[in-house]
Amino acid sequence: TYAPKLILLDISDINCIQDVAKEILNCYGCVDILINNASMKVKGAVQSISLELDKKIMDANYFGPVTLTKAILPNMISRRTGQIVLINSIQGKIGIPFRAAYAASKHAAVGFFDCLRAEMEEFDISVSTLNPTFICSYHRQPAPGNWEASIWK
User: Fold this and answer.
1) 73-101 pLDDT, tens per residue?
2) What is the CATH number of the domain that holds 41?
3) How many CB atoms lie within 10 A of CB 98?
4) Which 3 state secondary structure label does DSSP give 149?
5) What is the spatial distance between Cα 127 and Cα 153, in angstroms, rounded to a whole number?
6) What pLDDT is attached to residue 122?
7) Residue span of the structural domain in which 100 resides
8) Which residues of 55-78 are buried (b: 16+ CB within 10 A; e: fewer)?
9) 61 assigned to some structural domain
10) Is 62 a known active-site residue?
11) pTM of this prediction?
12) Which carries the bigger pLDDT value, residue 78 or residue 10?
């Protein structure tokens, strides 16, 4: 058995993910199951959401899980075993009004992990995507003019 180790990671900070993955692999030697479960969302009309916020949502919901998976994947491939899970959203399959950036990031993630599933079959690595319906998330009420406060985490 291994003692638990707390490793902090901002999944939207793509630049630190590689270092965190190395730290995990150095500590434990391998990852048997990777569960990608972090997410950010924002509610608003397309014309009222800045491109900056669109990119932040895409970094957290698409590039974050993809970057972490790619950092852990070579170890799984070399051992020819492992499981990768993406906890996504039903909005990765359908879009609803006022959630364009969120839905787009979730659609992109579904596409990536569907392709990964097919590619990893030969290495006996299981890739699963779960798309639950709406869940209650932590939310902060935004202050006027503060878009970061309107993000659901």
Assistant:
1) 999 999 999 999 999 988 778 888 999 99
2) 3.40.50.720
3) 13
4) helix
5) 24
6) 97
7) 33-130
8) ebbbbbbbbbbbbbbebbbeebbe
9) yes
10) no
11) 0.84
12) 78
How many domains does the chain divide into? 1
The identity of residue 55, as a single letter, is K
DSSP state of 32: S
3-state DSSP assignment of residue 139 = strand
The strand pairing partners of 125, in sequence order, are: 82
Question: Is residue 146 one of the residues assigned to a domain?
Answer: no
Instruction: Confirm whether 150 is domain-assigned.
Output: no
Closest CA to 123 of 71, 58, 78: 78
Of 2, 28, 62, 102, the catalytic one is: 102
> Does residue 6 lie within any of the structural domains?
no
Residue listed under structure tokens 């902090």: 8
24 within 8 A of 76, measured Cβ to Cβ: no
Integer Cα distance of 21 and 110 in angstroms: 22
**Cα distance between residue 141 and residue 11, in whole Å:** 22
Quick one: tokens of 141?
Answer: 């009420």
> Cβ-count burial of 43 within 10 angstroms (0-12 exposed, 13-18 middle, 19+ buried)?
middle
- 27 by Cβ neighbours in 10 Å (0-12 / 13-18 / 19+) ranks as exposed
